[in-house]
Amino acid sequence: MRDMRTLDHLQDGLDAEMGWRVKEISTFIMAAKTDGAEKKVYIRAGIALMYAHWEGFVKNSSEMYLNFVHHRGLTYRELKTCFAVFGLKGKLELLAASRKSGPNIAAFDFIVSELGERAQMKMASAINTGSNLTSAVFSNIAASLDIDLDRYSTKFNLIDESLVARRNQVAHGEHVELKAQDFNDLAQEVLQLMRDYKVDVLNAASMKGYLREDRAA
Fold first, then answer.
1. Smallest Cα–Cα separation from 4: which of 202, 213, 207?
2. Which InterPro entries has this protein been placed in (predicted)?
């Protein structure tokens, strides 16, 4: 992934990330409309592919946004807490896990002293989908980036039951029965979810949604 040093870089990255995924899903939408025994194969494969693109897009676009925030050159104190956590997570985890006063004091002192330093986002495994991007996992990722969930809440059942559950059935070799029109409808819903997330990421970046409220003015 290239560095997202400007808003244009982020937009170009998101456009490219979305573009090839739309093409692949569209290919399976067309294939599912064909006649013949292979239609069911296309639909089963299409469900797995659709889920892979849902998970991949959310993960990669979220990491692009984090990369963009990283390159703002801001201090931890200037960032909203949810973003500062990405850089201080290791020390915070030590505080939560350790029962010894020495390591706890050292970790706390480190955190306090680092607040005025330039934030260093830990990109490795920053966004963890757990290879199972349910609505709960998605909500956690969105919340970690301070992205509002209102527009997605009505689609949680679709994510969990229509997409993730069916993908798991396909992955486990179970029978999945889905008509071509229903597959098309599901694909359109998933694509719209991805488009919505792309818009929300771009809006958050352009509106400087990563800044603490007292720094955003």
1. 202
2. HEPN_RiboL-PSP
